[in-house]
Amino acid sequence: MRIIEEIAAKLQKYPHVKYEGGGDFINVLPTSDHGFTVGLVARQGSYTVSFNGWHEDYEDEEEALNCFGFGLSSECRLKEDRRGGIVYKWTVQSKANGKWIEDSTTGLLLFPFWMKKETRYLQNDLIGMVSETDNPRPDSTH
């Protein structure tokens, strides 16, 4: 699809960025152990953006691209909650006035709730590493 080809063409300019893709999807892999995978699946009239296990569906291409770009930026953080080493909840956070605010959460219904809870914060900074005229969507907001 056009949206996937557009993103892939822009990412090819940056050899340090690893991604995988096919006809209707693209996944940008994290550049560090503290990052997360940002994915986009395009189907006729709908788009799904994902950050590891978190996901959001969009009907508007521009909104999907903005969310995709947001996930690649340092303005986005992903909070992962685990129990027994199993990730069961993903919360997207954005920065406002120097503080992280929770935006949206995706979670599993079945998980080992009796195990000790651990929280891990993941963050990408790809948008900060590429020039504003060449990133997938410089005006990315969520």
Write structural notes for this entry:
With 142 residues, the protein is an alpha+beta fold. It has one domain. It has 3 helices and 9 strands; from the N terminus they run αβββββαββββα. The strands form 2 sheets. The protein has a 5-stranded antiparallel beta sheet with strand order 1-2-3-4-5, with helices on one face. It has a 4-stranded antiparallel beta sheet with strand order 8-7-6-9, with helices on one face. The longest helix is centred in the middle third of the chain and has 12 residues. The radius of gyration is 15 Å and the shape is globular.
Task: Summarize this entry quickly.
It is built from three helices and nine strands. It is an alpha+beta fold and 142 residues long.
Query: Could you tell me the strand content as a percent range?
Result: 35-45%
Q: Share of helix among residues?
A: 10-25%
* Gross geometry: globular
- For the secondary structure, the number of strands is 9
Number of domains: 1
Distance between the termini: 22 Å
Low-pLDDT ranges: 129-142
The helix count comes to 3
What topology emerges from the helices and strands here?
Layout lengths: L1 H10 L7 E3 L3 E4 L9 E6 L2 E6 L2 E5 L2 H12 L3 E8 L2 E11 L2 E9 L9 E6 L3 H4 L13
Antiparallel strand pairs: 1-2, 2-3, 3-4, 4-5, 6-7, 6-9, 7-8
